[in-house]
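User: I'm putting together notes for a lab meeting next week and I want to include a structural view of one of the chains we've been expressing. I don't have a solved structure, so I'd like a prediction I can at least talk through. The sequence is below, exactly as it appears in our construct file.
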Amino acid sequence: DANAPAADEAADATAAATAAERRERDDDVMIAAAAAASRGGDSRNGSLILQCDAEMVTPTGVATGRLLVTTRDVTFQHTPGITASGAAVGGTKDDDAAGDAPFAAPDDDPYATDDLGGGTAWRWPLDSLRGVQTRRYLLRRSALEIFLLDRRAYFLDLRTQEQRTRVYSTVAGLRPRHCGEFLEIGNSSLEALFRKSDITARWCRREMSNFDYIMALNTLAGRTYNDITQYPVFPWVIADYESETLNLDDPKTYRDLGKPVGALTESRLERIKERYDAFDDPEIPKFHYGSHYSSAGIVLFYLLRLEPFTSLAHQLQGGKFDHADRLFNDVPTCWKGVTSDVSDVKELIPEFYYLPEMFVNVNNVDFGVKQSTGRAVNHCGLPPWAADAFDFVAKNRAALESEHVSRHLHLWIDLVFGYKQRGPAAVRANNVFYYLTYEGNVDMEAITDPTLLKATQDQIANFGQTPSQLTRKPHPRRMSAEDTLGGSHWLLANPHGACRYPLRVPPSACGGIPAAVVAAAPERAVLVVVGSSGPPKIVTHRWLPNTPDSSALPFTFEPARARRETGTMAGFFRSVARRAVGADPEPPDSSQAPAPLAMGALAPELASSLRRIATDAHDRVARSPHRRSSALHAPTPRLPCEVTPDGSIVVVGGGVVVVGWR
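Assistant: Thanks for the context. Below is the predicted structure for the 662-residue chain, given as structure tokens.
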């Protein structure tokens, strides 16, 4: 029957639509139940709403147990003796055949307590939650990551996507106090979440450093410190590891960020392309690289000298370290391998830009002796231009934040997180990896054969996972330093200069009185205001670096008593929630009522200028037919703002320093 295929497709579409409606109805019921329970739960521990099997994923292993959601908190109860469905490379899991030690909670975890059943329980009060983000685990969309106000994060695998949706909907229905509207849109696709966020615009305007922006992209794409198979990935930026001095003004110092690591050398690229063209397999798609730029093995390779990675690397090799000549011996040799070895295409990890201890054998571990030199492996060798590990990290970070990298970083983002990650654009960019490293190429929940499932999980866990794709469009370039001097990062990165930019002060921030002069100190903005009568007055406001308000300025006009959490992750959550749900910015407010300004405390020139401004304002009000409203709704002046290294108050009007006020 020729109509049979069409009928089958229609039936499948109807069944899919029915299943989607059922899931949506279940989510609505779960949210309603959570909301109702939160209103009615009066017990000390809260009313239990949902419980299910779950696993907590950490760098040292996978803990199995149960997840409980109550009206007051989210709790994970670790149950020793239950086999985990998967474990991080080198990590432990309960009842492991190799006889590994049982999973143990860190000693310094304030949320972990001994459970009555002999295990450990992690209890996170709803008021401590800062955000909850959907995650994938071993390429399954089955996990969640919980972010807390104290910047801790916990990674939970719920086994199936359906179960994850139930848990997420339940927590969203409870509306944790500090999550705001973020939970309402956090279950969206990562591409949609990226579009709703304003982090790219902030980075382009230089309100975020390159490091902070790459970290935000990693977090958004599902990379996390909790799962070493999905560790944050950072680029090599320096290509010169032989010179005695490092010249950050020379473009030859830098790696070509528009090419993947495997394509940096023409001779190696030719061999890779020949292999790609010759590859022909009916089941496996073509690929340029059989290895990956980010994997658990690479993380252990770089962090070999620090615990718990030292123990994990020792465990991964069956109770011994890898051959001494294959360990992370020195940075120049590592770079040579990355640019010459066909199978070595690894990028870097974030620690290269902030953790000098990773290059020092701080625990005096015996890593063996190299056959090539007869020397014992100890501290990591550094390039000649680095005096020590601290100097190396400082110069590496300076290179990452350099103007050259700022102009070209968007090209690397296209390769790792953007439109050149997959599809024809990836082929043209010589950026195709083995198919099992990409999300969506295998349905883990559809594999019923335990042996095949274990083999697939091992392949994914050991050989790398490509980050989730955040955009299918070219990433915009960053503004040049000449185009903008604004933004809190520029201010903090240039302590010997002053940051000047237009600052539009909300009229309500001055009690409805037009501002005459604006000045700034390290933790506050100071507004000198004038009214229709009386001497000038001052109003102070809290200054929160790196948390722009709706006008994209690093000032938030709100009272000091309402101080909010600051930082890259907090700003990211706020920006997503604000942009996604169309929420109005918080109403401006003053940290104190306008106070009379002691004119005698000012330099004579400034005092005279302020008196003249006050007189002019009084005359304007006197001539206005709407005296009251004219004073309250006069146009807000657009005045420059300035900060000096010593933190003194600098009034731009005449360039006179304010020496004091009462």
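A couple of points you could mention at the meeting. Residues 4-40 form the longest helix (37 residues). Residues 51 and 68 are 4 Å apart (CA to CA).

User: Perfect, that's what I needed.
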